[in-house]
User: Fold these one by one.
Assistant:
Number 1:
Amino acid sequence: MGKGCYVFRAALVAIVGLVVMAGPAAAMRTEYNVQSLKGLEGVYIIFQSLDNDIVADGLSQQAVESAVQKRLVDSGITLLSEDELVTRRGGILYVALDSIRNKDGIYACNIQVQLIQVANLSRDHSILVPATTWMYGMVVLAGSNSVGALQNAVLEIVDEFAQDYQTVNMEEEPQAETASIRR
């Protein structure tokens, strides 16, 4: 079996694995998850630190953080400080990009964005717990010479969050009343 056939077979196995692995993350986003964003006053963002290898290959922690913050603000979502998180009806937006590089310089990356809010237990409303109320993720492959493209993958997920947020929080335009004209 030639090297080309081996590479093709490995890529095919990886793609099938990615489809299987990406399914559960997308399945988490139900109508209940979208509705959990209603009334959210903003988010406090926590970024997981990037792996040293992926940073050495050119993905900038600061660039990813700045791009995510800008995308959220441009979407009408308020960014909260840690102090504001306690005093306002906000949540923690956790952004994670886990990566592992093989010997050929190919990264397998799991990208997750989660919203964590305080919720009460249905069996005892006096007990408050942190709960992931919204989550979306994807698994992607990237070569060591194209890790910068992973920032776009992170932003795709942030866009999904922003779209869901806007769906339940943006006021509908009032419909102009039409007067009936009698002749």
Note: The chain is about 40% helix and 25% strand.
Number 2:
Amino acid sequence: MNLWEEIAQARTHLKSAADNATPEQHHSKSVTRKHDQVDASALAELDRLIKRRPTAPHLDDQGGLRIPLNCDPKYRWWQGSQSPFTTALELGASDEEIENHVNEIFNSDDWRKWQKIKNAKK
């Protein structure tokens, strides 16, 4: 089970605990305590899973480039740092994935660099 499936399962568990009580039970102290315990354990589980979430750029299971918002500022292309193309190269992404992050119009330097790399592979 991957991280996102684990988070979804924990969320489902938390929602199920809240949905299974009748309106009368919501006012019962024993049910409230039980729900508080379930809520606390589910929230602890979500917290544990979130802390496992990668903070460094990485390639996902399908080879797609993922750059988390809380990554090192070096990789935050949206703040003017290193381009996704350069990060994809660093991570050893497939040619297809690199093509997704390079464009002659938006970043001509990266595009020219990519053309040289592709020609050298031939």
Note: Residues 3-52 form one domain.
Number 3:
Amino acid sequence: MAPEGPRTGYKRELFPLWIDADHDGCNTREEVLIAESRSRAQVDPYGCKVVAGDWYSLYDGLTFTDPAELDIDHMVPLAEAWDSGASSWDTARRQAYANDLDHPQALRAVSAAANRSKGDLDPGQRVRQRLGDGEEGVEPERRPERGRRPPGDVPHL
């Protein structure tokens, strides 16, 4: 595999994040939190803000009940997507990629600490890093398919 060239022109802001694509009042972050909670996520009734749930972080095997402790991770980081061709995409396509709810593995709720420690490593680099450190891989927990809920089906408190 040829090494990647230098990263030029990438800025995270070039990928508009956390939009409300289906106009149900919930942005992408909240949609992922709702979909991935192992129990029914509790949502503020005055707006789509997830306030509690039960999440499993596949990066470190920890569970969380406070959504503030979670990041929504792009399994293929935005910077890696940029290096792999997103630099030539228009804003609409980068926004669609950054908010992809149609592919369940694209966005995952994970512990903020683990997500930030991995930085912009692509999935293959993360596996090599983990195995190189002698750590055993954390087995991802099976979860239901994430899909669009019918309009108005937001689980409020």
Note: Strands lie at 42-43, 50-52, 55-57, 62-64, 70-74, 107-111.
